[in-house]
Amino acid sequence: MSGRNCGSARITTVLLDLDGVLMDHRAAAREAVGAWLGERATPDVVDAWFASMAVHLAEWRAGTSTWAEQRRDRLRDVLPLLGEPVGTDEELDALFESGYLPAYERAWRGYDDAAPALAALRAAGYRLGVLTNGTETQQRAKLRVLGLADAVGPVFTAEAVGAPKPDPRAFLAACAGLVVAPEEVPYVGDEPETDVLGARGAGLSAVLLDRDGTAPPEETAVIGSLAELPGLLRP
Length: 235
Prior knowledge:
Keywords: Hydrolase, Magnesium. It comes from Amnibacterium soli. This is HAD family hydrolase. It holds the Pfam family Hydrolase. InterPro entries: HAD-like_hydrolase (IPR051400), HAD-like_sf (IPR036412), HAD-SF_hydro_IA (IPR006439), HAD_sf (IPR023214). The chain is of the alpha/beta class. It folds into 2 domains: about 15-25 and about 110-235, HAD superfamily/HAD-like (Rossmann fold), CATH 3.40.50.1000; about 25-105, no CATH class. The protein contains 10 helices and 6 strands; from the N terminus they run E-H-H-H-H-H-E-H-E-H-H-E-H-E-E-H. It has helices at about 25-35, 45-60, 65-80, 90-105, 115-125, 135-145, 160, 170-180, 190-200, 230-235; strands at about 15, 125-130, 155, 185-190, 205-210, 220-225. It has a 6-stranded parallel β-sheet, sandwiched between helices. Strand 2 (about 125-130), helix 6 (about 135-145) and strand 3 form a beta-alpha-beta unit. Helix 1 (about 25-35) crosses helix 4 (about 90-105) and helix 2 runs antiparallel to helix 3. It starts with 12 loop residues before the first strand and ends with a helix.
């Protein structure tokens, strides 16, 4: 932990991200590509998949692509590397839903520090909530599979609130749903721009969960594990 920058207002509620905070999305995606493509999942192909995912999810967050289209675009980028033809939208949807997606779902796993940290926060008297980019069906399914659906409090997805992070409307919608003022809420996320700067831009405080030690040097509210979060928030 390197700092105590959670704002000066009394903290009543903690809002957390899902992917990268409660669930190891990156490991699940990497495992899914390997299971889906088998021997064809070379390092170059896996790197291309992640690079494509980053580009097209950013387009979706910017509102220039739909959720379905960013999935198709990932396949449009990677299939030529495999020597596979790029088919119609309908064929791409079928391939994603029969190949990568079920493998990704089988790989969903929570971080070991997630459940204990949530329990500690609740024991300390904090209300909890989740704000996550993605669809209602998939993100709620993740929490059920992880065994955290009853532990996280209300869940707000980009699909349901009508705006993805880092749009301030996403954070403000979650605060409104929790009936709490933004200044009473720290947001805990793993992405400096989408999560931390997005939350602060909406008037929340923010904590960066930096599991891999790559936090920007200027960031002060940083933890390396969710186990550190209750201590960071303690007045």
